[in-house]
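re: ur question from earlier - yeah i can do the single chain one, its not a big deal. heres the input i used so u can compare w yours
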Amino acid sequence: MIDNGHRNIAFIGSSYIPEYYIQAFTGYKKALEEIQVSIPSNWIQINAKDEESSYECMANILRSNNSVPTAVFCAGDIFAIGAIRCAKEFGYKVPDDISFVGIDDIILSRYVEPKLTTVKIDKALMGSLAMELIVKKINGEQVKSEIVESDNLIIRDSVKCLKG
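and the output i got, formated as tokens:
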């Protein structure tokens, strides 16, 4: 989003799976700090757990007294799908008025309108690493958390370029 000229970027995540969402939020926060942008605190919504609750998170952002973000980073594709539905029902065009990016590359990401730009997670690698850790734990070995890099951006139609 930043490479496309966005500076007013909201965040929709969840506190229900703390480790994952802390990582997603940390990446979001780091990206904004690098370009020295601060955003209103009510643009950070962490109560999403499904499509309906992410709809409500987006409604909270749109009802705030601040201006509307040009983009929303969602810590899950299902959150982005709910947020997009909300933005459309509030009368905004996606991506012309508000752009969206999710994480996970779920199958629905290819079929929502517009098709969702997303960060693809290597679930096969995550699964195999998890099994290795479980086997080690069963065998009494010490294990530590593994981090799977997730920089595979799948560019679709939900982000507007503001540059140019």
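The chain has one domain: 2-122. not sure if urs matches, ping me
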